[in-house]
From TrEMBL:
The entry's keywords: ATP-binding, Kinase, Nucleotide-binding, Transferase
Name the record gives this protein: Hexose kinase, 1-phosphofructokinase family
Keyword field contains ATP-binding: yes
InterPro entries: Carboh/pur_kinase_PfkB_CS, PfkB_dom, Ribokinase-like, Tagatose/fructose_Pkinase
Length: 311
């Protein structure tokens, strides 16, 4: 079972408007609501791929109940701990005129020390029986920057590989706990390491404690750096579509192969393939399974030969 923790879940609301004009009123032509947050998106993709998965998250208020109801309707196994504050909303505004997407994310409710302890306890109870632990998304107000680091430490002690996908102080603290895999995008990598070069930044992250680093490069694919080796992967042709959940899908693809204890090039191939297939989905957490199965073998994985990788 792959255990997925979403510290700051959300009710994702997508508004489609004919055209989004700043300063003007926009009439909504359609509304879509579903459980979201990076970790829940990861769990949703894993579930679609057929992987045994359990989503853990703290939820509260009416929107928290809607998150639970949506997960139940999707058949996605979950365990939601109750908090006093209301679960946040993330709003996506899609302009039908030109396809542009505008995101508005609430910060989330304050989670008390006692409420966070409930999440930690849930991980402690289950991690030794899990194949992989995934920690994804931002930390809500009230949870210290080392919140994910505490969970990663539990996984490390149990001999379970942990995957971390977050940003800022939570990313920096989490790296120090020694996760098996960290997946920043180029902006997150630069913010933590101070370098814009993906390879140099990935090596810096390894020096800080991450065992393997996958750097999302957008349409250019993904870079992987581990002990003494590095690879770059991409798809033969670029796809047009919804890229909102592509990074979350990449984490799901990687976790799937980590659970199978596959070699790193195959973990990377799966991350890129599933990420690419998610672009064809309507919403974050959707994945085109036919595309994934058809194009998985077409993902190009090339080893990078560079002396710098050996440091």
């Amino acid at each position: 079972m792959i255990l997925v923790v979403t510290a700051n879940p959300a009710l994702d609301v997508t508004y489609t408007v004919p055209a989004l004009i700043p300063g003007a009123m926009s009439r909504v032509s359609s509304v879509h609501r579903r459980a979201g947050g990076k970790g829940i998106n990861v769990a949703r993709v894993l579930h679609a791929l057929g992987a045994p998965t359990l989503a853990l998250a703290p939820c509260g208020g009416a929107d928290g109940r809607l998150v639970g109801a949506d997960l139940a309707a999707a058949g996605l196994p979950h365990e939601l701990s109750t908090i006093a504050g209301p679960t946040r909303r993330t709003v996506t505004i899609l302009s039908a005129a030109d396809g542009t997407v505008t995101l508005v994310n609430e910060p989330g409710p304050v989670v008390s020390a006692c409420e966070w302890d409930a999440v930690v306890s849930a991980v402690r109870r289950r991690v030794s029986r899990s194949s992989v632990l995934v920690c994804a998304g931002s930390l809500p107000p009230g949870v210290p920057a080392d919140g994910y680091a505490e969970l990663i430490d539990l996984a490390r002690r149990a001999g379970v590989p942990a995957v971390l996908d977050t940003s800022g102080a939570a990313l920096l603290a989490g790296i120090a706990a020694g996760p098996a895999l960290v997946k920043p995008n180029a902006e997150e990598l630069r913010a933590v390491t101070g370098t814009a070069d993906p390879l140099t930044g990935a090596l810096a992250m390894r020096a800080l404690g991450a065992r393997t680093v996958f750097v999302s490069l957008g349409a250019e694919g993904m870079l992987a750096v581990t002990d003494g080796a590095a690879w770059r992967a991409g798809v033969p042709r670029r796809l047009r579509g919804n890229t909102t959940g592509a990074g979350d899908a990449a984490v799901a693809g990687a976790a799937l192969e980590l659970a199978a204890r596959s070699p790193w090039p195959e973990v990377l191939r799966s991350a890129v393939s599933v990420s690419s297939a998610s672009v064809l989905g309507a919403y974050a957490g959707d994945v085109d399974l036919d595309h994934h199965r058809r194009e998985h073998g077409a993902v190009i994985v090339e080893e990078i030969h560079a002396a710098r990788v050996d440091v």
